[in-house]
């Protein structure tokens, strides 16, 4: 009766392991066979002459022992040999020197052997699960995952994915206004996977710039298709972010595509990020123009860039300075993060004393591509242009002589008209 119970116990053990997720069939059979062979080797001193047959579908197994037949008085190793008298109980026609095979019932090994097997299996399966979990999430670093809140602690939140794996969202990786209750679903990006002492720890983040990047990929098909590229991201989580985008198709407006009709695309991202204010700007390799765009909505009067020091001095009208700096200094801080330049803001006192006009005001008289060319060399107002020599404008803005003459005539005439008034 006891032996029958032990056999049932073993079948239950196999059933437990065959239902495990993330472990393929071949690996499972290999682990089971190794575990059986470990116990057999401990019992008999070797496992070389044993065949272990595992059937994980049914949850059962067979163990067969192969022994060489020897004369009754020549038995030296009962593990590898069997006397002819005993062998003929298995195969009546066997002769000395032949091999006979008989089935070994694992339940006959005793309760200790069965417990030993269960412990060995449990240990190996746990190790396999940890390896599988580590490999699975190592490949998901930088990707968005969804998981349910299981436990909320002071310094972190414990989440469970669909397979019941434990994920951690530390307080430092949460948006300041994040608040979750048990059972709620959280979306976050896999930040890293630690594997100290073969104990995988999956760390998620909602504050990493890559989380914002992945949200844009989900909401903007052109980014997912590779037509628009996110070049740079700067974030102050839960407050404000700036995203620089570039299009590889001239027909696509990258900023418009990211924002969507009436903000339809960006609204979903803003909601996910707890109303984080997101500025989307066009990327350019022209440093001075990129800094100008990064400081939006402020309009700058002039700029001096030192590429060697990664520094920029920006001059603005007094009323524009507060816009450039932004509430709590967020705008200029993000502009510095986005451009990777140290930006110093100065009041353009000289420009404040005199009346100056932004070049955009002359769009009806000067072509927009010419205005852009002038902005590219740091000229954003009429007086910025007039302060430069004709030769310098031709060389630096790469414009025709006649074009420069026409520009200077238009801008000079504007100030002459003001003087006459």
TrEMBL record:
GO molecular function: DNA-binding transcription factor activity; nucleotide binding; RNA binding
All residue ranges annotated as the S1 motif domain in the record: 142-207
Protein's UniProt keywords contain Electron transport: no
GO cellular component: cytosol
InterPro entries reported for this sequence: DNA_repair_Rad51/TF_NusA_a-hlx, KH_dom-like_a/b, KH_NusA_2nd, KH_sf_prok-type, NA-bd_OB-fold, NusA_N_sf, S1_domain, TF_NusA
A GO BP entry: transcription antitermination
Residue ranges of the TM segments: none
Coiled-coil region: none
Naturally occurring in which organism (per UniProt): bioreactor metagenome
UniProt keyword terms in alphabetical order: Cytoplasm, RNA-binding, Transcription, Transcription antitermination, Transcription regulation, Transcription termination
Keyword RNA-binding: yes
Entry-linked PROSITE patterns: S1 (PS50126)
Protein name: Transcription termination/antitermination protein NusA
